[in-house]
Design brief:
heterodimer; A: mainly alpha; two-stranded antiparallel ribbon; about 5% strand; globular; B: alpha+beta; 6-stranded mixed sheet; 5-stranded antiparallel sheet; 17 helices; 19 strands
């Protein structure tokens, strides 16, 4: 029975979430005496709240006798536990806020699994999702204050929210709905072969060009190479998933690289990012645009194979470490083994998503599940690749691990949609 | 539906991406860890300095020159860790203050390290692993190790005498133990207070100062050696047999040698003098002749053998990852032209050496022509009081024969007698010396003095330079005599 399996795995996942923060607290000299910041009662309180939320979520699924995938929730909870560990060792005061967001996130999971009913209905509103994506992306450009050189956050009643995060999900919904529609099906028909290469029909390159334009607009207006790559990458992956035509991947990849190259020539902020990637070590860059990536590399290098130990990272003074660089802190504390473990957890999450996609009967839900899997994988690749200097570093969150409400809510929504997809398809 | 076909491929694609990222993590953690770990911008390096009790630096008699003490001061605002993450901190104190600044150096977060602090960093820093337990339950609460103590050859008393004798004049004093090669005093001016380096305003002022107080003149400053170098020319010529101690020279005050005019400081000339007189009265014409007779190849060989062009191993060999002493400069790359050879013969031309080089030259002459590498680090003692490094007796490098060294030393004694350039300086002390005034493009000549005592069986060699202070006997001479007097009464 799936739910029993889920329960056993959840116990292990919650164990991670308890042991990690407690070790961090002990290493940093916390005692049972309640004190601001880090103390064992505080850690215990935070963990109990997480355990309560997760238990309720599991109990609701069990009561509905849901046959949803039993691995996805424990995997996500384990990642959340690792995230709490890192947040506790970087900035203990943020841990309580993170758990508050987790409550909201798990409520969203329940809402998505129990409240959505027939998922295929969502597939009828392709253009609604498309418009929603654009609106969600445009809102912050119009109303948001500039924070850290980017206009991404919307502030309502003291709560900061990043609408762009939610736009990731509406984008996947749009792509899945569009490709599942009659028009989209044409797009994924047999390709034309030009010189042995399967090229998409020029007539159907329109959507590709449109998405490319959206990606470029994101790049230029939002000053966000990472989000642009994420959106465009998810779209291309889904296009490939639906059509099995690797020509799309080639055309998409080349055109994005070309666009990025053009953009770095035209816009100084993109150029600085690129420079900081190619050589962050020079005296001028290391104090400025290359600061984050070099600090991340110092942290990773300090970890070695086994890590320096939980709670002993030296990234507390690096700005935005809890949102952008938790992977580096994790590498420092737990070393190569920890990094391997975390990437394996993500790989398993993506594998479950794609497995769910393959088992769908409906074209829309299949593409939706595949899209959510691709989105998860790309998020991890963009930030982990950036932190390790494989690609330019951009401020993308590490799903479930990074501190940040919008990101956690969005990832929980993805989890909820996937669980709903998997119900009845096992 | 094509998902059954494409999903495994997508998974494979993402898997390859994850593997690449993991490979990159491994690359930084395994291949580049050491380099990044020592990067000046890496806060971990300084956190280690702050968080661990670094070893002490001691003088020859066990007096503390640098010590780590628990830091009770509140951390600077930008420095504060988030609530609940405060750890124990240590600060570095220098009880001798400015006195040993360039020998001991500084060790300060965000500033870096210098001197012994830099060269012996690997020994001073506590081992990363906790101390091995002596009884099983210590495994449960491992104790951090203390850094190892580094004992120097420096004598704080002599160092103080040297610094006071030099006063507030730009220059340097180096005193060596002739029979061991040990550095007994290494003083220079301008200097700085290593305990205040953390103070941003003080640090910026040091860096902006045109006098360059951060430059360790004693072993990093390069100067033309001037007439003090004549003793090497003479010793090499005596050793090669191209000149006899009784050889006669005729000096008119200037002479055309190798198509260039060589001038003496005495305009009317020294007249008829022998080799001893040429050294005692510092005759450029005679020494230029001596160098030309010796020949370029043999002269160059002697300069190299005496270590004048090398980075001297001032710190324990192998301990210094980044060697600090400057290498001397001499035209070695091709055969010297006769003009260059003549100029180098009396210490001008393209020659440049540090005061440490010159003191080493004096040590070699005092030790029967056998050069001993000058060294500053005597031993390293671990926290458990076991000696983990002791300077081994190093076999000397013979540079000139004992006879040639003894003869040169006798000539240097004549310098201090009436008629010599250093007459009246010694004040009853049994000293062998050599004056020098090095022409340089920065104004008045640098005042040099090289001295050994006791002259008949030298135990101490002292080299002094005072920048832009004119004649050797005027500025540098009295400093060297004061240091030797203090050394002899140790």
């Amino acid at each position: 029975m799936g739910r029993r399996r889920e329960r056993r795995l959840l116990v292990a996942a919650l164990g991670v979430g308890l042991a990690g923060p407690v070790l961090v607290a002990v290493v940093n000299g916390a005692t049972f005496a309640p004190q601001p910041g880090l103390s064992i009662p505080r850690v215990a309180a935070v963990w109990l709240q997480m355990a309560l939320a997760v238990t309720v979520c599991h109990a609701v699924l069990a009561r509905r006798r849901s046959d949803a995938d039993p691995l996805l929730l424990p995997l996500s909870v384990a990642l959340c536990g690792l995230g709490l560990t890192i947040v506790f060792s970087l900035s203990p005061t943020q841990a309580q806020k993170q758990v508050n967001w987790l409550f909201a996130g798990l409520a969203l999971v329940l809402a998505a699994t129990s409240g959505l009913g027939d998922l295929t209905r969502l597939g009828r509103y392709a253009y609604l999702w498309g418009v929603a994506t654009v609106v969600l992306l445009v809102i912050p450009m119009l109303f948001a204050r500039e924070i850290n050189g980017a206009r991404l956050w919307l502030e309502i009643g003291g709560l900061r929210f990043q609408p762009g995060e939610l736009a990731k999900v509406t984008l996947v919904l749009f792509c899945a709905a569009y490709l599942a529609s009659a028009r989209g099906e044409l797009l994924t028909e047999e390709p034309r072969y030009v010189g042995g290469l399967a090229l998409p029909d020029p007539r159907y390159l329109g959507p590709l060009a449109l998405m490319w334009l959206l990606g470029m607009a994101l790049l230029v207006v939002l000053r966000d190479l990472g989000t642009a790559a994420l959106f465009f990458g998810t779209f291309v992956c889904l296009l490939y998933a639906a059509s099995a035509n690797s020509g799309y991947v080639a055309v998409g990849g080349l055109s994005f690289a070309g666009g990025a190259w053009l953009a770095q020539g035209l816009f100084p902020h993109v150029h600085r990012r690129l420079e900081a990637w190619l050589n962050p070590w020079s005296d001028k860059v290391i104090a400025d645009a290359g600061y984050q990536v070099t600090q991340a590399l110092f942290a990773i290098a300090a970890g070695g194979v086994t890590g320096v130990g939980l709670g002993l990272n030296h990234m507390q003074r690096v700005p935005a470490a809890t949102t952008d660089l938790p992977f580096a802190a994790l590498c420092e504390e737990t070393g190569l083994w920890g990094a391997t473990l975390v990437l394996l957890l993500y790989a398993l999450w993506v594998q479950r998503a794609l497995r769910i996609a393959v088992r769908q009967r409906e074209r829309f839900t299949a593409l939706l599940a595949a899209g959510l899997g691709c989105l998860m994988a790309l998020q991890v690749l963009v930030i982990v690749g950036g932190v390790t200097k494989l690609i330019p570093l951009t401020g993308i969150t590490l799903p479930f691990v990074s501190y940040g409400g919008s990101s956690l809510l969005t990832n929980c929504l993805m989890l909820g949609l996937l669980l709903r997809c998997s119900e009845g398809a096992q | 539906m094509k998902l059954a076909q494409t999903a495994p491929r997508l998974l494979l694609f993402f898997g390859v991406g994850f593997a690449l990222a993991l490979g990159q993590v491994a690359y930084w953690q395994l291949a580049r860890a050491d380099e990044l770990g020592h990067h000046l911008r890496n806060p971990r390096y300084w956190a280690r300095v702050r968080a661990t009790p670094r070893g002490r630096i001691l003088d020859a008699r066990g007096r503390e020159l640098a010590v780590s003490v628990p830091d009770t001061s509140a951390p600077a605002t930008g420095d504060a860790l988030p609530e609940g993450l405060r750890r124990r901190r240590y600060a570095r104190r220098y009880p001798a203050g400015e006195l040993c600044a360039h020998a001991v150096g500084y060790c300060e977060p965000e500033r870096g390290e210098s001197g012994v602090e830099l060269a012996m960093d690997a020994w001073l820093t506590p081992p990363a692993r906790p101390a091995p337990p002596t009884i099983w339950w210590e495994w449960l609460a491992p104790q951090p190790q203390r850094g190892r103590d580094v004992a120097l050859t420096l004598d704080l008393d002599l160092q103080r005498v040297a610094a006071e004798a030099l006063g507030a004049r730009a220059g340097a004093v180096v005193a060596l133990d002739v029979r061991r090669g040990a550095v007994l005093a290494l003083a220079d001016y301008p200097r700085f207070d290593p305990g205040r380096v953390g103070d941003k305003a003080y640090w910026d002022a040091l860096r902006a100062d045109a006098e360059r107080p951060l430059l360790a003149r004693a072993y990093q400053g390069l100067y033309a050696p001037g007439s003090t170098f004549k003793v090497l020319t003479m010793a090499a010529a005596l050793d090669a047999g191209t000149i006899a101690p009784g050889a006669a020279f005729d000096c008119d005050g200037s002479a055309v040698l190798a198509h260039t005019r060589v001038k003496c400081d005495v305009k009317t000339g020294h007249g008829q003098i022998d080799a001893t007189g040429a050294i005692a009265r510092s005759c450029n014409v005679s020494l230029a002749r001596t160098a030309l007779d010796l020949g370029a190849a043999r002269f160059q060989r002697a300069v190299v053998a005496a270590g004048m062009t090398r980075r001297l191993d001032l710190f324990a060999p192998g301990a210094a990852a980044r060697t600090l002493p400057a290498a001397g400069k001499a035209p070695l790359d091709q055969a010297l032209t006769p003009q260059q050879l003549a100029a180098c013969g009396y210490g001008q031309g393209a020659l440049a050496v540090s005061p440490l080089h010159l003191a080493a030259l004096g040590q070699m002459l005092g030790n029967g022509g056998v050069a001993l590498e000058p060294y500053l680090v005597e031993r390293v003692v671990s926290a458990g009081a076991t000696t983990v490094y002791q300077r081994p007796p190093v076999p000397g490098r013979p540079v000139v024969s004992a006879g040639a060294a003894r003869a040169t030393l006798a000539m240097m004694q004549a310098v201090m007698r009436p008629g010599g350039t250093g007459s009246g300086l010694a004040g009853g002390l049994d000293v062998a010396g050599k004056t020098g005034s090095a022409q340089n493009p920065h104004g008045q000549a640098h005042s040099w003095f090289l001295a050994l005592a006791p002259a008949t069986a030298p135990r101490y060699a002292v080299a002094v330079v005072v920048e832009n202070a004119g004649w050797g006997r005027a500025a540098a001479g009295p400093v060297a005599i004061k240091v030797l007097r203090a050394a002899l009464s140790r």
